[in-house]
Each structure stands twice: as structure tokens, then as C-alpha cells.
């Protein structure tokens, strides 16, 4: 298991007890903090930059990694990428969907990947559905992909069977 990713809403992210709650959950689950990735939307981080930075620092001190979900669709400012301790940018599916046909989407996705690489961040492309999209993302150096090409959403009851059937390469399944 490489990481467990959990979406965190803006309201949850602003909760003053979030770091303590995360620590308790990690202890109860027996999961090392470095294996937890909290996914924040751009809006959650930029509504109150000073408070967001303080919260990110507390989570980072505990070893939790943070990713920016749906990158490119919100209120992002490049200065926030410089200030916030973000481990990964998740490229929104709206840019991935038409990669094979839209030169502007290809340019935007390529630029996001190059920028993330230059800043020492990982990238995940959301909404990968075709081999053509996958080929382009691999060629650009995108680190991971998620989408129907890899798996449709699964009920919790089916997830264990899916995971067991892919145990030979669990961390490699979505690695590009």
C-alpha cells in the first residue's frame, strides 16, 4: 500500500481539531502518517491563506502529505504553490477529458506537469479513460493517473476482492 487518499472539505480543513483527529485515526488504523494523503480543493486552501498555512504546517509536522485536488479549476495562485507545503497536484479531469483532440488542454496539462516537477511535486491526472490519454500523460512525465481506464468506482464490499486480485502490483496499477 503506497498511500490512502482522503478528500477533505473546506469545513473539515478549517476544524481546529483536525490534526488531533487525524493522529487518532492513524493510530487506530495502524497507518503510518506518511501513508496518508489529504486531498484539498484549491478553495479550501485559499479562503484564509494564513489559517491554511498554519493547518498545513501542523499536518506536515505529523508526517501527513497534502495534495491539491482538481488543480486548475479554482482560485489558484502560483504564490500559494510556493507557500503551501503541497506534495502533489491533481490535474482536474476537465483538462484530461479532451487531451487527444484539444491542443489547449495538452498545453495546459503539459505546463502543470512541468511546473509541478520544477517545484518538486508529484502529479496525478484525474479522469483518465483512454489509452491515448494515458500515452500522452506518460510522455509528459505525469506520475499517476486515476479514472475508468484503471477501475470504475467500487462498493466497499467489492474493494477487498479487487485489491487482492491486483496485489502483485498494487502500487503500480495507476502509476504512469
Plain-language structure description:
The structure is a single chain. Helices cover 46% and strands 17% of the residues. The mean pLDDT is 89. The chain contains 9 helices and 6 strands. It is α/β, with parallel strands linked by helices and 176 residues long. The chain has a single domain (4-165), classed as TIM Barrel, CATH 3.20.20.450. Helix 5 links the parallel strand 3 (65-71) and strand 4. A 6-stranded parallel beta sheet has the order 1-2-3-4-5-6. It is globular, with a radius of gyration of 17 Å. It has helices spanning 10-14, 18-29, 42-46, 49-61, 78-83, 93-96, 103-118, 131-140, 156-165; strands at residues 4-8, 36-41, 65-71, 88-91, 122-126, 144-146.
Q: How is this fold's topology laid out?
A:
Elements: E1 4-8, H1 10-14, H2 18-29, E2 36-41, H3 42-46, H4 49-61, E3 65-71, H5 78-83, E4 88-91, H6 93-96, H7 103-118, E5 122-126, H8 131-140, E6 144-146, H9 156-165
Parallel strand pairs: 1-2, 2-3, 3-4, 4-5, 5-6
Structure at a glance:
The chain has 176 residues and is of the alpha/beta class. The chain contains nine helices and six strands; from the N terminus they run βααβααβαβααβαβα.
Amino acid at each position: 500500500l503506497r498511500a490512502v487518499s482522503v478528500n477533505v472539505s473546506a469545513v473539515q480543513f478549517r476544524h481546529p481539531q483536525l490534526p488531533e483527529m487525524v493522529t487518532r485515526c492513524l493510530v487506530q488504523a495502524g497507518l503510518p502518517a506518511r501513508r496518508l494523503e489529504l486531498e484539498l480543493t484549491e478553495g479550501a486552501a485559499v479562503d484564509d491563506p494564513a489559517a491554511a498555512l498554519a493547518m498545513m504546517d501542523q499536518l506536515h509536522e505529523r508526517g501527513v502529505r497534502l495534495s491539491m485536488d482538481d488543480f486548475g479549476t479554482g482560485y489558484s495562485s502560483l504564490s500559494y504553490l510556493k507557500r503551501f507545503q503541497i506534495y502533489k497536484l491533481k490535474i482536474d479531469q476537465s483538462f484530461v477529458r479532451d487531451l487527444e483532440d484539444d491542443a489547449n488542454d495538452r498545453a495546459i496539462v503539459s505546463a502543470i506537469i512541468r511546473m509541478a516537477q520544477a517545484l518538486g511535486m508529484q502529479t496525478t491526472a484525474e479522469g483518465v479513460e483512454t489509452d491515448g490519454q494515458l500515452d500522452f500523460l506518460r510522455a509528459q512525465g505525469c506520475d499517476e493517473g486515476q479514472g475508468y481506464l484503471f477501475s470504475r468506482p467500487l462498493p466497499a464490499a467489492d474493494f477487498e476482492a479487487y485489491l487482492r486480485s491486483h496485489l502483485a502490483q498494487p502500487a503500480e496499477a495507476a502509476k504512469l
